[in-house]
């Protein structure tokens, strides 16, 4: 399976709390819900296409707990049947049980366990949210593709997908489109380390 990271970002790179003010208030974050004003039918169709490619979902603990709380009750949501039915994997050292079935807990060497999942037959193993997990797996060279939906907003603080001091990564742009609601949607494949050069104008 291909490992794909799907993230909602602000223009200044924040990935924390896109869906509501109380989605993720860790570290005193009070500016959640910034993605919602830009979601339209066009982006819902893009998201449906992406989710339709998944044969498994991979989460960090915090995102898993939020999703496991909400999605089982969202049976009327267009994505509800798929989200609830897909195999789910949660990378955690603290959870000992998981009720959002089918879920498998990954509690050992996460990079090795994810690498083993990638060797299984299938299309895509998708990370939704879970920016810290995405960062660690990108640093481990396990991410194959990044799908970034960038909202035209600057929030000024919050957890970033690409923090200062993160591991460098080269990317190759596969596609880019803008939605009527104002989102800029970029799809990249990973391409090893960045290339550097000197401008000689």
List the helices and strands and how they pair.
Layout: E1 2-9, H1 41-51, E2 54-60, H2 61-70, H3 80-85, E3 88-91, E4 103-106, H4 110-118, E5 124-128, H5 131-139, E6 145-150, E7 171-178, E8 184-190
Parallel strand pairs: 1-5, 1-6, 2-3, 2-5, 3-4
Antiparallel strand pairs: 6-8, 7-8
How would you summarize what this structure contains?
The protein is α/β, with parallel strands linked by helices and 201 residues long. The protein has five helices and eight strands, in the order βαβααββαβαβββ.
Kindly describe this structure.
The protein is α/β, with parallel strands linked by helices. 22% of the residues lie in helices and 24% in strands. The protein is built from five helices and eight strands; from the N terminus they run βαβααββαβαβββ. The protein has helices at residues 41-51, 61-70, 80-85, 110-118, 131-139; strands at residues 2-9, 54-60, 88-91, 103-106, 124-128, 145-150, 171-178, 184-190. An eight-stranded mixed beta sheet has the order 4-3-2-5-1-6-8-7. A hairpin with a 5-residue loop joins β7 and β8 (184-190). The longest helix has 11 residues, at 41-51. It is globular, with a radius of gyration of 17 Å. The termini are far apart. The mean pLDDT is 95.
């Amino acid at each position: 399976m291909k490992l794909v990271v799907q993230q909602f970002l602000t223009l200044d790179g924040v990935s924390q709390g896109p869906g509501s003010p109380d989605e993720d208030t860790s570290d005193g974050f009070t500016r959640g819900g910034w993605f919602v004003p830009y979601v339209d039918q066009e982006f819902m169709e893009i998201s449906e296409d992406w989710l339709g490619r998944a044969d498994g979902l991979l989460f960090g603990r915090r995102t898993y707990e939020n999703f496991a709380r909400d999605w089982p009750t969202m049976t009327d949501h267009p994505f509800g049947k798929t989200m609830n039915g897909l195999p789910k994997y949660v990378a955690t050292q603290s959870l000992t049980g998981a009720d959002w079935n089918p879920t498998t807990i990954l509690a050992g060497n996460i990079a090795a366990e994810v690498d083993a999942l990638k060797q299984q037959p299938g299309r895509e193993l998708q990370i939704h949210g879970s920016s810290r997990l995405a960062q660690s797996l990108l640093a481990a060279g396990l991410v194959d593709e990044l799908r970034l939906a960038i909202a035209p907003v600057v929030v000024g603080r919050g957890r970033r997908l690409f923090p200062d001091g993160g591991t460098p990564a080269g990317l190759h742009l596969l596609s880019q489109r803008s939605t009527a609601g104002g989102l800029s949607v970029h799809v990249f494949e990973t391409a090893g380390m960045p290339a550097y050069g000197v401008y000689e104008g």
